[in-house]
Amino acid sequence: MGIVAQLILCYNNIMAKENSTITSLINNDCCFDLQFRKDTRHERTGSPTYYRWKLQFVITSPKENSKMMGKVKKMMGCGDIHIIKDQARFSVQDIDGIHDAVVPFFKKNKLQLEKKRRDFEMWQKAVAIIHKNKGVYLAKWPKSDLHTLMEIHKSTAKYKQKPRRSKWIEMAKTLIKKEA
User: Fold this and answer.
1) What is the span of the domain harbouring residue 55?
2) Cβ contacts of residue 5 below 8 Å, gap of 6+?
3) Is 154:166 a contact under the CB 8 Å cutoff?
4) Distance between CA 134 and CA 19 in Å, rounded?
5) In which residue ranges of the chain is pLDDT below 50?
6) Is 12 helix (H, G, I), strand (E, B) or coil?
7) CA distance 61 to 76
8) Which of 88, 111, 136, 139 could disulfide-link 117, Cβ–Cβ 3.0 to 4.6 Å?
9) Looking at the 3D structure of the chain, how many domains does it have?
10) What gap in Å lies between CA 56 and CA 35, rounded to an integer?
11) Backbone angles phi, psi at 40, to 5 degrees
């Protein structure tokens, strides 16, 4: 075997180990988040309040893994990394980044844990709905889309380690009823 072939083989082995570490990090420490949020615009006259569905993909890990988070960001081609106290946090919150990079990544690279895989399958449906309605006022969304997001939100709670009740989910229910 020639020197070039040996170098390529060595490089491929290093990359395989690195990809395995990244895959393990993603499989163990990622979260597919769907929230119904309230935003108040204090800078505007009358401080109007808006409600919206928000998605994010998050990986948290000890700050010692921040270099690995940088590799995840490079692999995904989007997202941000923040170090807060002893924790590194990689997140993608932009709907286009989620739709165009995160979802295709997980369709290609299957999650190993059954709970994570099921959580992703539900979450990607929410991604499709929110992406389809991007730029449209919530009141103008099809009622069926709002109902589906409510069901996804409820269904994915069982896949979370620490499920929390959304503060504004009652308002989401009210908005759906208004559309009737």
Assistant:
1) 3-179
2) none
3) no
4) 33
5) 10-16, 180
6) helix
7) 17
8) 111
9) 1
10) 9
11) -110, 130
